Amino acid sequence: MSEPTTPTRARTVPTETGAVAAPAPEPAWRRFLSGSAGRNIGLVVALLVIVIVGAVTAPGSFTSVDNLLVILRQASIIGVISIGMTLVIIAGGIDLSVGSVMGLASVVATLAAVQDLADNLHWSVMVVIALAVGVGAGLINGIVIAYGNVVAFMATLAMLVGARGLAEILAERRTLVVQDRGFITFMNADILGVDILIWIFAIVAALGWVLLNRTTFGRRTVAVGGNREAARLAGIDVRRHTMWLYAITGLCAGIAAVMILGRTTAGTSTHGQLYELDAIAAVVVGGTLLVGGRGTITGTVFGVLIFATLSNVFIQNNLSSSVQAVAKGVIIVVAVLLQQRFSRPPGRG
User: Fold this and answer.
1) What is the reported pTM?
2) How many structural domains is the chain composed of?
């Protein structure tokens, strides 16, 4: 039989120098808030607060079905990029080039030679070319980072500058108009009353969730972000895994390029400017740690929706973009502070 225990505030552990108080157990509320369920509930509450503010300040117009679809449509393109960014950041990396790669893919897909080929074959050629450009740029990033041992920040910064410059050269600083009516019709179609861009975002988010939570690749991604050396010792080819992660991020940038081509019917080197910052902000607000090892696709989706809804509230109330930028900055700082607060080990306050 076990001896009865007396409740105490802290258990003592004998050592060579005497008894040392063990750390107090972590409170249940903090364990809940630091878990994925608690973080997602917090994001839902934050989103609901913004929705309530929008409904009160802009009654009628904000809560209309058309406006809600506008919010989802505005969130879709940056949302797709954010899904790829989530995987990279969970693995302890970062990709600053996704916006430029998106712009480059949109330009290459609308070059005269590519559009002529699409006229002779099918408009899907433009889609394949855009995706190939995205994957190619991502692979270059991954190879330089994984096998060249270049810091991810510098490697992707170089791609940011290089891809944007190459897009300007190819487009000759002009806007390249999409000529294929079949592509435009398809990309502006509605399925069950919902814009196809929203469906694409939903599909990419669902595939990202499955990849992260239901595959060996996803488990390895978390392991690499948690401790690269331990992952290597466990038999994971960290360098190859890192390379494919950046390829996936490039693929998401290519998908986003196809989406913006359908939305604007034009390819230009200016597409995707500062999208990398918006994506990183959505990922961080969604609860993914910048140091890697923890993150969720669901949280990222909520992060994207929070920013898209916030922007819509400002537009509905005719507030300036400067005020909107300040609000975004405050949200990001609060999110990072909460991450630091609830990701500390027990006993460190």
Assistant:
1) 0.85
2) 1
